[in-house]
Design a protein that fits this description.
- The structure is a single chain.
- The chain has a three-stranded antiparallel β-sheet.
- It is mainly α.
- The longest helix is centred in the middle third of the chain and has 26 residues.
- The structure holds acetyl coenzyme *A (ACO).
- The site of acetyl coenzyme *A (ACO) has 16 residues, from loops.
- Acetyl coenzyme *A binds next to loops.
């Protein structure tokens, strides 16, 4: 019989940390989170200042290169992203192979991975210039692919990028413009989407980012690594949580029903949880949630959606929970997902697109982390260990003797 304790003693120090709750897998200079204080910094800048004063492409530049761009750097970066928004025409035919009712995230996984086949000139990860080009290509093409996935799902023709528009205006137009009518981008909605993208751009070593790093640690091409990140993000415990929060607000339905649901959330024998509350890292108010709440109000006001029952329920639920001893003691505050579903729904996005939008925004974070890893001379292939709990040694028995 194998002595597992002895085996691990022979291999040196060994830690068992399911879910990596206390093991740092890497050093990073990109994003800082202080969950107790409710602080989120990108390259040292507080998220609320970036969301208030900056724009998404500026944030992309910051995450990728470490500093905010000056005016000419910004203009050049915007220009480069804009020049790469088109996808190969052959790719538009690729879409026809999917069922119309396919989940858009499945299309995203496939099409982003397939970029490696269309742009195989930029899969040489050892060439810094090719790494740059691949990064710009992905940031530029993600909205185009996402909008194509949406248009395909509703049976409408694809809308090509219009490059005199800013990043989010262009995306809204590609999603919502139809040939029969002239589409005018609403600047309030474009600004709100831009802010939502800033809030989702990076969040240090979350599950999808760790997936991208792990995939990239083998030297895999960047498009394949980002496709792996998209697949991970799709899970309901990660990118799918805003959908769950929206569904729950719909189930609560009216302010009068809130106490019943709060009581259920507190009942140890009931598996029900208040969706959009609590976070593995934030044990204080998620700083992104505050900005998201403000954005939700702005979007609903702009669209003339007065007295939206979902928003009314959300605001009151938040008020009640923040004064309830159960939530106070357990440090359960609204997270970013609490208000984002309401906002995206009001903007006209179907629920299936929520996680796709998250993927579009998070792409820059994935790429920045991937680049940081490739640039690190000490980086090793990711290879977690395991604590073996299976059968001890045994001899093979022929099938007739089993
Ligand atoms: N409603 C009611 N009780 C809750 C909630 C909630 N939303 N979240 C946690 N609790 C309680 C748990 O029952 C547990 O109670 P106990 O100590 O009596 O057993 C305690 O708070 C700690 O909960 P854990 O699950 O251990 O906390 P963890 O940090 O692992 O989980 C998580 C964080 C998964 C986000 C959790 O708060 C949750 O399930 N929230 C609802 C889902 C959600 O909103 N997810 C989005 C996360 S944000 C993002 O992914 C971008």
């Amino acid at each position: 019989v194998i002595d597992i304790g002895k085996l691990y003693a022979q291999t040196g120090m060994f830690t068992y940390d399911p879910g990596f709750t206390s093991t740092a897998s890497t050093e990073s200079k990109i994003t800082y989170i202080d969950g107790d204080q409710g602080v989120l910094l990108y390259r040292g800048y507080p998220i609320d200042e970036l969301a208030e004063h900056g724009d998404f492409l500026e944030t992309c530049y910051l995450l990728l290169y470490g500093d905010l761009p000056n005016a000419s750097q910004k203009a050049e970066f915007d220009y480069r992203v804009t020049r790469h928004t088109m996808v190969h025409e052959q790719m538009s035919r690729f879409f026809n192979g999917f069922r119309r009712d396919a989940h858009p995230m499945s299309i995203m996984v496939a099409c982003v991975g397939a970029l490696a086949a269309f742009y195989h000139d930029s899969i040489d990860i050892n060439d810094p210039l090719q790494r740059q080009i691949a990064s710009i290509r992905m940031i530029a093409k993600m909205p185009t692919i996402a909008a194509m996935a949406y248009k395909y799902s509703i049976g409408q023709p694809f809308v090509y990028p219009k490059n005199d528009l800013d990043y989010c205006s262009n995306f809204l137009r590609m999603c919502f413009s139809v040939p029969a009518e002239e589409y005018k981008v609403n600047p309030v909605l474009a600004r709100a989407l831009d802010r939502i993208f800033i809030l989702h751009a990076d969040h240090e070593q979350n599950a999808s980012t760790s997936t991208v790093r792990l995939a990239g640690s083998s030297g895999a091409n960047p498009f394949g690594c980002i496709a792996a990140g998209i697949a991970c993000l799709w899970g309901p415990a990660h990118g799918g949580a805003n959908e769950a929060a929206l569904k729950m607000l719909g189930e609560i339905g009216r302010v009068e029903n809130i106490p019943k649901f709060v009581a259920r959330a507190k009942d140890k024998n009931d598996p029900f949880r208040l969706m959009g509350f609590g976070h593995r890292v934030y044990k204080n108010y998620d700083p992104r949630a505050k900005i998201m709440q403000k954005t939700a109000h702005e979007v609903l006001t702009e669209l003339g959606i007065k007295d939206d029952p979902l928003l009314e329920v959300a605001v009151e639920l938040e008020r009640i929970a923040l004064h309830d001893s159960y939530f106070i003691e357990k440090k359960l505050y609204p997270n970013i997902d609490f208000y984002s579903g309401i906002t995206l729904k009001a903007m006209g996005f179907p629920v299936a697109m929520f996680t796709v939008l998250f993927a579009v925004a998070r792409t820059v974070g994935w790429i920045a982390q991937w680049k940081e890893m490739i640039d690190d001379p000490d980086q090793k292939i990711g290879r977690p260990r395991q604590l073996y709990t299976g059968s001890p040694f045994r001899d093979y028995t022929s099938i007739g003797d089993r």
